Amino acid sequence: MIKVLIADDHPVFRDGVRGVFAAEADIEVVGEAANGHEAVERAAELGVDVVLMDLRMPEMDGVQAIAAIATRAPGARTLVLTTFDGESDVLPAIEAGAAGYLLKDAPTEELLRAVRAVRRGESVLAPTIAGRLMAQVRTPTGGRIVSDRELEVLRLVADGASNRTAAARLFVSEASIKTHLQHIYDKLGVRDRAAAVAEAYRRGVLR
């Protein structure tokens, strides 16, 4: 069972999201939070698996809450669910530790898939977010950043492939994929898959 916490300052929106999960046998909404501070406290208290986090909230904004949850509730994965899709919103959230980023107008099935994917340890970026990052791409300096094989891994990760799927497509072990990912993180100065994809688009490594 995937335990979900909904963090948003609009009660009507929280009710709507709760309704999305009502018929799902493997997902349970175990709590709600109306501000960032409450989201951090409830995530730690309830031992949740996934936090659905809005970015603009009172008392503590979403980015601050994401970073605090990573410390207070390290077992929880945060999926941003917001209306803001600018680079100044997306990148800070991912750098703070968000495992995924969706917009509030995402179809129900996309939200359900994202929650399950994030729980599995995968990263999720809405297609429109990836598109905006690509549109704002900057040409990297100093030559090639990643190796050809690391670039192949990055492309698969950007397409939403899990470590197992990437390993199967490249005919290598999952351990090799993990090693490539760690090298990618080190080269791009990031900590996780979602941040690696965002930074790769920003630098022009992915197009």
Automatic annotation (TrEMBL):
The alphabetical list of record keywords is:
DNA-binding, Phosphoprotein, Transcription, Transcription regulation
- The domain of life is Bacteria
What PANTHER family is this protein classified in? TRANSCRIPTIONAL REGULATORY PROTEIN NARL-RELATED (PTHR43214:SF24), TWO-COMPONENT RESPONSE REGULATOR (PTHR43214)
GO terms (molecular function) for this protein are: DNA binding
Domain named HTH luxR-type is located at 139-204
List membrane-spanning regions.
none
Key word Transmembrane helix present: no
Please give one Pfam family short name.
Answer: Response_reg
Task: Provide one Gene Ontology biological process annotation.
Answer: regulation of DNA-templated transcription
Could you confirm whether the keyword Transcription appears in this record? yes
Residues recorded as bearing 4-aspartylphosphate in the entry: 54
Q: What is this protein called?
A: LuxR family transcriptional regulator
Q: Where is the Response regulatory domain?
A: 3-119
